[in-house]
Design a protein that fits this description.
- With 167 residues, the chain is mainly α.
- It folds into two domains: 11-106, no CATH class; 108-167, no CATH class.
- It is 55% helix and 2% strand.
- The protein has six helices and two strands.
- It has helices at 13-22, 30-40, 42-49, 65-105, 131-143, 150-158, and strands at 121-122, 128-129.
- The chain has a two-stranded antiparallel ribbon.
- The two termini are 51 Å apart.
- The mean pLDDT is 96.
Length: 167
């Protein structure tokens, strides 16, 4: 595929709306459509145009701006729902790992014991994989965050050793 220079000029939201209408998109409430373009942006919405175009830059007959927004809203809500589920799974797995490692090694600071981690190695693309160092970097980032989590702030404010909070 031969690349070309990008030479499109910026368009005002009014001009973007006119372009969409020229491409066959039905827009019944222009003020509402302008508000959406100003809030979401033409470029972000453009991915949601594709299912409604059999021919590039030409909307299928009868396609409405509301359909585009409804598709965008559905995708956004689905994404939020999926991320919520992923976060719950992550917390549950992390909880089980911390619980089991703490009990297995009778150590609330097992994450600071390099011997409990596999040795560093280089993967197929010659990138160093060091789970212990990576884990320590995550802990350090959490400790030095501008607004650390309450339990981390409490530990740092009240204890000097070990350096890291318990798992």
């Amino acid at each position: 595929m031969c690349k070309k220079a990008y030479n499109k000029i910026p368009l005002s939201t009014q001009d973007q709306l006119a372009l969409l209408e020229n491409r066959g998109l039905v827009i019944t409430d222009k003020n509402k459509a302008l508000a959406y373009l100003q809030e979401i942006s033409y470029y972000r919405l453009s991915a949601y145009f594709l299912p409604y175009q059999q021919t590039k830059d030409v909307f299928n007959a009868g396609t409405t701006f509301k359909q585009i927004i409804d598709t965008y809203t559905f995708d956004r809500e689905l994404r939020l729902l999926v991320f919520d589920c992923i976060e719950r799974i992550e917390v549950a797995i992390r909880t089980q790992m911390i619980y089991n490692m703490s009990l297995e090694y009778q150590d609330s600071h097992w994450q600071d014991n390099r011997n409990l981690f596999i040795n560093p190695y280089y993967n197929k693309v010659r990138h160093l994989v060091d789970p212990f160092a990576d884990f320590q970097a995550i802990i350090l980032k959490a400790k030095t965050a501008r607004t650390p989590e309450v339990f981390i702030k409490h530990y740092v404010d009240n204890y000097h050793t070990p350096a890291n909070p318990p798992s």
